[in-house]
Amino acid sequence: MKVYEGHILTVNEHDDVCRYLVEEGGRIAYVGNDLPARYERTPVEHLGPRALVPCFVDTHEHLASFATFNAGLNVMDARSNEQICEMVADFAHNSAAKTLIAFGASPYSVEEGRLVSRAELDAVCPDRPLMLVKYDGHACVVNSRLLERVEKRVSGLRGYHPETGEMNQEAFFAVSDFITGSLSIPELVGNIQRAMDYLAGKGIGMVHDVSGVGFAGNLDISLERWLAKSAQGGFAVRVFPQSMDVRVATSRHLPRIGGCFACALDGCFGSTDAALDEPYEGTGDTGVLYYTDEEVTRFCVEANRAGLQIEMHAIGDAAFDQATRALAAALEDHPRPDHRHGIIHACLPTEEGLELCARHHIQLPMQTSFIDWPQEPDAYLEKILGAERAARLNPLRDLWDRGITISAGSDAPCTDPDPILWMSRACNHSNPAQSLTVREALRMCTYNGAWTTFDERDWGSLEPGKLANMTVLSADPYETDPRELDRIRVEQLLLEGRPYAAQRQGVAAAIARGIAGHGSC
Question: Using the 8-state DSSP alphabet, how is residue 485 labeled?
Answer without folding.
Answer: G
